[in-house]
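Hi C.,

You asked whether I'd gotten around to modeling the 186-residue construct. I have! Everything is below, sequence then structure, no commentary in between.
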Amino acid sequence: MTASETDHLHSQLSRFEDMFPGYRMEIVEGNVVLSPLRAFHAKTIRLVWNLLESQISPQWECVSDVLFPFGDGFEFCPDLAVIPAREEARNLSVYSVELIELAIEVVSPSSVRNDYEVKDRQYAARGIANYLIFDPSRGEVVTRWNPGPTGYRGTDTFRYGTTVKIDTSVGALTFDTSGLPVDPNA
């Protein structure tokens, strides 16, 4: 997909942003993808955001569901991304992917492949140092680091109910996962 085709898709996508409440829209592999949001999805984002925000230095800030164009048919809205505070203060709806130091996704039943495979490759290829995947269906968090051209070379998986400690480019982070929701229907 060419840059002009991606620009066209983005302009088309922006016209539909408010037409589908309860859905998140992204461009994945050149296709517009709508993902239904669930209560546990939003709750996990809120809890993780609270844990994260209290640990990062004032030079960093969290953003959620804002657009990061990756080019080549990919535009993502990470559930959470850590970017420089001076950039977040600009209050934009679209940011450069080069600003992301830490990307976090919360898996929904409809986003399993995108979160575990597609975004793994795309985030790593763009050099995002750390990628965390919180999965309410599996009751686990996956940490990924050491980005390479085809994905992350390092990965660890932790069951919810444990305290997860990771070193990231924004500092050492600790996540107590005992309060995160686990989907009872999974």
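If it helps when you're writing up: The first strand starts at residue 23 and ends at 28.

Thanks,
B.
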